[in-house]
Write the structure tokens for this entry.
Amino acid sequence: MSATTRERLALATAGLLALLVVADTASSGSVRSLRMLARNSRGALLVVLFLVVLVAAIGARRTWRIRPWVALALGGLLLFFLDSAAWSVLPGTTVKKLAALAGIVALAALVAGVATSWPRWGLVVLDALLAGVGVVVAAGFILWLFDSSSAVQPASVQSAARFTGLGHNPDAAAMVLAIGMPIALARALSPGARLARASCWALLLAAAAEITAADSRGALVAGFLSLLVVVWLAPMSLRRRIGGSAAVVAALVVCAAITTIPSALPAPATKPAQAIPKSDVADAEKVLPLEQEIGSPWWTHRSGLLRRSLLGSGARGSALRGAIDQGLGRPALGTGFGAEEFVNRYYGYNSGNPEDGYVGLFMQTGVVGLALFLVAVGVCLLPLLRRRVRARLSNTYAGAAGAAVAGLLLGLSQSYFHSAGNIAAVPFWIVLLLASSAPLALVDA
Amino acid sequence: MTKRFWSAAAVAAAVLLALIPVGRWEAHRHARHEMAGFRRVLAAIGPLDQSSLDAYRIGIGPGLDCLLYKRGANPYALEVCFQASGRVVETYDRRGSSPKIWSLREDPSSSSVFVDGRRAIALVQRLSSPRS
């Protein structure tokens, strides 16, 4: 393949990937026209992106590679997911959802394979993700300026006002921003034009600011802790690493403290308890709804007011415990990939899934599936810790590794990496597979 | 590709096949456990149509209706939720300090415990009608 064709394919990939990041975020946002446009174009963008990357991989077929153990681990994982259709509570759903996830993993593998022999490709892909994140940040800010009601979740008795930006809830866009933060830092630390580096620093700060304004605790922790990965993997002196780590931790503490400043609305004055009419007692859903039973004031005899706090787990903690209990009903192999069937019974919890990717995987595929996923992730990332690899790691792969770690940490507060339609699924798998190809790229270098 | 790699792939394939009966056994075991709970609650309730029948639910989850029975001062002490066919999918025992729940909501067809569906639906309709 000629250098010109290769460059064109790289630019096309970059453009499509950046658009896909924006479309994914906007596809469930609060602005209807944007939402419809994004939903209608997402599928096409993904297909065209896949085809472009496939062409690039075919062009680079003589040098295209991924590590055999990565291929085996991911192949084994996907085959296990397919296997689970045999005992799944929803076999058709298992197969459909697996097909979608396999498409994304294949896309990520194709991207990573091209990057092993052409480092510029990896850089272009990361820059594309960063550009997408930049558009999400800017669009969220512009939306807030012109229509703040669409960009902010208003304050309630439970929580203060929270920035949603382009996403449908405060945690949605924040997921993508958290994955973008380590990439921005890695690019800011890379040699290059001063303006480009300054832009990356600005994007890093803007992403951190929007995550803070969203009061998205999971994204805050994921974004900042992943910066530590970049600091310790990127080529720099020990002194700079220690200083950088201290700065990251300090910034995390400051941002976390800022999230506690806005307040929730004051609780309404408690009305004296009134007798429930007999007709309402007969309709049990009016008094003790099944979806709100556990932790309900009917049981606790307390006010039922739940306030969101920095360190509190509240309803989310109950739901997580309940989800694990539900998973323990079929602990070895689960209910089948994609067939989670989480039953929400938790007072104050308003989600249809456990909001924890690891627990979600455990429910779907049991201990075996969760272990296989962790093995696959370990096979992808642990080789980066080897001394001879770390010693020669470029900022590109440090950024990819940091972003992959951000994605893994996000999995503690969001169910997403096994869900192909999720906002952050495509970026996560791409950075994970890109990071996994670092040892091969170094061998070639 | 090394010999070691292909050996590992062959072992993985064999393991995947062996997991199928394990997954199905686990599903059946879970269903048996939940159905044992259904039978305990139904035994505690006794006949569906009785004076302690106190409350109802309509259209819960995957198309379930529920009947609730009073025990002492607790109007919702025992509950059975079922499909229109009478297949029992969930039961609740609220006689303690926290609810005990047995459920096959994720896979209703795996329940082989039934109540008289027509009778149960009629009871729900009677309770939910404005005169009751």
